[in-house]
Amino acid sequence: MTKLTGKIFAWDFHGTLEQGTEVGFAQILRNIARKINYKRRISLEEVRKYFGISVLDYLKQFFPTLSNEEVYQLREYVKDIQNQKHIQKYIKPAPYAHEVLAKIKTAGHKNIIISTSSYAHINRFLEVIGVIGYFDEIFGIDRHVLEGDFDIAREKTQAIEGFAQKHKIKSKNIVVIGDRSDDINAGINIGAKTYQYITPDFPHIATNADFKIYDLREILREL
What we know:
- It holds the Pfam family HAD_2.
- One of its GO terms (molecular function) is phosphoglycolate phosphatase activity.
- InterPro entries: HAD-like_hydrolase_sf, HAD-like_sf, HAD_2, HAD_sf, PGP-like_dom2.
- There is one protein chain.
- By secondary structure, this protein is of the alpha/beta class.
- It folds into 2 domains: 8-19 and 91-222, Rossmann fold; 21-89.
- 42% of the residues lie in helices and 14% in strands.
- The strands form 2 sheets. The chain has a 6-stranded parallel beta sheet with strand order 5-4-1-6-7-8, sandwiched between helices.
- The protein starts with 7 loop residues before the first strand and ends in a 10-residue tail after the last strand.
């Protein structure tokens, strides 16, 4: 086994390396409301408030009187409509994402993605915004098809730990970047350095991150 040198930069995707997913998803929810003639105002602010929950939970939140069967059918509709064309229309890379990822890779370090979307789904997003080539490993933990409790921090911890152990990288050489508490807690669980990326569009989320940043270029201090 080849031993990696340098650091691991473990990235969340939605809300961290991209922007616009919630805008497109708000439009999907509005389309659903029109499709089924459901009288419900769907604001972008409310969609952002719940950002990070599963598609199933989103549907239950915005269409609470529907039966389970109807909600499951709508989940399949969401999968169909959130296609390549939709992603291209609404999603773009976060400011400086390309620059930061490229500099990390050029410096000899490793970028990995740990997402709670499926592997196929997250790959489509990465391809559309043109960053897939910067990553050494992509972990897709599909939260959106599961029901019941799902410990995001635990799942992300296991993914990062597995990659680090496989390549003999110590926790002091791991940097975890995300926008939500589960991302940060995953990094804390393994003793990594943690960065919370904050954007003004979303409600403030309190975390115990080592650093709270508004510009992804601040990650480059770790090179």
